[in-house]
Design brief:
Elements lengths: L45 E5 L9 E4 L2 E5 L8 E5 L3 E5 L11 E4 L4 E2 L6 E6 L9 E6 L2
Antiparallel strand pairs: 1-4, 2-3, 3-4, 5-9, 6-7, 6-8, 8-9
Length: 141
């Protein structure tokens, strides 16, 4: 239910049928912000973290078990916003081929298909050849 403190009676009027592409009726798509959840904080697409090393916008940043991509540049010890959702081109370990949709892990320096000892980063958005040095990843949710 969209945010509203007043409730109105249901409409008894009938609406004309919608034509393809007609945008006159409200969409069924709601955002969490549209609801009255008292404990909702944010969508979680971006998180502020203190980076351990100098970071440039677009660098992969791991904090705990979360792996994201820096939205801004920051010096070591400073806070930076990190995207936790989306599709990004990231450094890829050579010798690791990916098929589309395969899990991708972060080894601290590059994305890899090797799970052991690494944190889940997301899934391959497109396939990547073993010799490739860049891979396209949809970050895990």
């Amino acid at each position: 239910m969209p945010r509203s403190s007043a409730r109105s009676a249901p409409s008894t009027a009938t609406s004309p049928p919608l034509l393809a592409g007609d945008r006159s009726e409200p969409s069924c798509l709601y955002f969490l912000e549209d609801f009255e959840m008292r404990n909702f904080i944010q969508s979680g697409d971006v998180m502020t973290v203190t980076v351990n090393a100098d970071t440039v916008s677009g660098d992969v940043v791991a904090t705990g078990k979360l792996v994201g991509v820096a939205a801004i540049s920051a010096n070591a010890g400073e806070e930076a916003e990190v995207a936790l959702t989306g599709v990004f081109d990231v450094p890829k370990a050579t010798g690791s081929a990916w098929s589309q949709g395969a899990p991708v892990y972060w080894d601290g320096a590059a994305a890899t298909a090797t799970a052991s000892g690494n944190d889940l980063m997301g899934h391959a958005f497109v396939e990547a050849a073993s010799a490739a040095t860049i891979g396209r990843v949809r970050l895990a949710r």
